[in-house]
């Protein structure tokens, strides 16, 4: 039986009022490539503050508009500034990384230095396409360094009442194989540990294998995870009860995670969460239209459209929890419909971050 999730209610609201917005350009997120780049969202969502790495990251991300307008002298200046920081702030960067990870950090810094040299050459040659590809590589390396800064310390507390639930205390990489092809996703347990934990736990159990796409709304969502039979989610074999996951959302610069409260209930009508629904393939957790804490196994791929679904004003942010992003194979999303299915979901890396309970 298809579970009537909150997404259906939100779709009705979106259809009713979405076209009354006369100024969709006033989205909560600023313009530029980084807004729709899942890697950029995930980099900025990492719960740490290492000044040198953040400066290099933002300096490169800020070249998006410069490249778009072919302001190559300014692009070269930004790349050179990044090279300078990598060379002259190496010691400060290494000091912020746990001793067990320093050797790996040294290797990544060496790769980053080489990438930036190549980036400067491409800037001088005004080769836009290759520059964008190499910048993506540089930023991935920076993201890898930023992840090392965190080490194995999980920075947030989870309420004790959820001690029995699995949690992902870090990130994991997943391969999502569908009847139309395979996608790669990054699952973020830093900012949605219980939601990400439930997803990774079920993926490990093979729960999603063979399940259909049970809802497909163009420009909105693709939903799956509804098990065969009368149940609407995962039944815990230990007690034969439906395992449910609370609504779980973080806001930038806030200490505590919000549980079981929507942004509307809190009066946060245009707030953008740490993990926004701001890019194609954002992964969201489904729940019913009557409760926010009864989601169990169903999730959806958000089909982002900048004008129809602006972050902070798209009726999904603050009502459903995002827990990761598709980072490769996004084009497959536009090919999927209710005649397709999930073949398998495999966890490629980060399974060691999954804990079965507190």
SSE topology sketch:
Blueprint: H1 6-17, H2 33-36, H3 38-45, H4 51-61, H5 63-68, H6 72-88, H7 90-95, H8 102-124, H9 128-150, E1 167-168, E2 171-178, E3 181-188, H10 193-204, E4 215-217, E5 221-224, E6 235-236, E7 241-242, E8 248-249, E9 258-259, H11 263-266, E10 282-285, E11 299-302, E12 322-328, E13 342-349, E14 354-355
Helix pairs in contact: 3-9, 4-6, 4-9, 6-8, 8-9
Task: Describe the protein's architecture and organization.
- The chain is of the alpha+beta class and 358 residues long.
- The protein folds into two domains: 213 residues, Beta Barrel (Cyclophilin), CATH 2.40.100.10; 103 residues, Four Helix Bundle (Hemerythrin (Met), subunit A), CATH 1.20.120.
- It is built from eleven helices and 14 strands.
- Strands 4-5-11-10-12-3-2-13 form an eight-stranded antiparallel sheet, sandwiched between helices.
- Helix 3 packs parallel to helix 9, helix 6 runs antiparallel to helix 8 and helix 8 packs antiparallel against helix 9.
- The chain is globular and about 60 Å long.
Which CATH-level-2 architecture of the largest domain? Beta Barrel
Helicity, as a percent range: 25-40%
Annotated CATH topology of the largest domain: Cyclophilin
Per CATH, the superfamily of the largest domain is Cyclophilin-like
Radius of gyration: 21 Å
Order of helices and strands: HHHHHHHHHEEEHEEEEEEHEEEEE
Overall, the morphology is globular
The spatial strand order of the largest sheet comes to: 4-5-11-10-12-3-2-13
């Amino acid at each position: 039986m298809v579970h009537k999730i909150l997404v259906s209610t939100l779709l009705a609201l979106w259809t009713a009022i979405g076209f009354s917005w006369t100024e969709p350009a006033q989205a909560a997120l600023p313009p530029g490539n980084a807004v729709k780049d899942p890697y950029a969202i995930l980099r900025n969502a990492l719960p740490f503050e290492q000044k040198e790495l953040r400066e290099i990251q933002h300096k490169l991300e800020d070249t998006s508009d410069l490249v778009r307008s072919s302001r190559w002298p300014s692009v070269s200046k930004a790349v050179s500034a990044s090279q300078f920081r990598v060379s002259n702030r190496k010691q400060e960067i290494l000091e912020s990384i746990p001793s067990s990870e320093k050797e790996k950090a040294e290797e990544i810094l060496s790769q980053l230095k080489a990438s930036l040299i190549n980036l400067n050459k491409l800037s001088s040659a005004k080769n836009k396409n290759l520059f964008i590809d190499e910048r993506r590589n540089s930023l991935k390396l920076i993201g890898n360094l930023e992840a090392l800064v965190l080490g194995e310390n999980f920075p947030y507390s989870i309420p004790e009442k959820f001690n029995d639930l699995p949690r992902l205390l870090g990130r994991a990489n997943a391969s999502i194989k569908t009847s139309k092809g395979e996608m790669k996703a990054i699952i973020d347990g830093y900012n949605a540990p219980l939601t990400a934990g439930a997803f990774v736990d079920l993926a490990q159990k093979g729960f999603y294998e063979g399940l259909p796409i049970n809802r497909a709304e163009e420009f909105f969502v693709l939903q799956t995870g509804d098990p065969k039979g009368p149940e609407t989610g995962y039944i815990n074999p230990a007690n034969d009860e439906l395992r449910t996951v609370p609504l779980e959302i973080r806001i930038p610069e806030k200490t505590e995670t919000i549980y079981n409260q929507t942004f509307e209930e809190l009066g946060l009508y245009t707030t953008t969460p740490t993990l926004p629904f701001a890019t194609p393939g954002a992964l969201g957790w489904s729940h019913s239209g009557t409760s926010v804490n009864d989601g169990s196994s169903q999730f959806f791929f958000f089909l982002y459209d900048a004008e129809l679904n602006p972050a902070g004003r798209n009726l999904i942010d603050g009502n459903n929890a995002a827990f990761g992003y598709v980072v490769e194979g996004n084009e497959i999303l536009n090919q999927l419909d209710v005649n397709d299915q999930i073949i398998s979901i495999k966890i490629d890396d980060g399974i060691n971050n999954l804990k079965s309970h507190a």
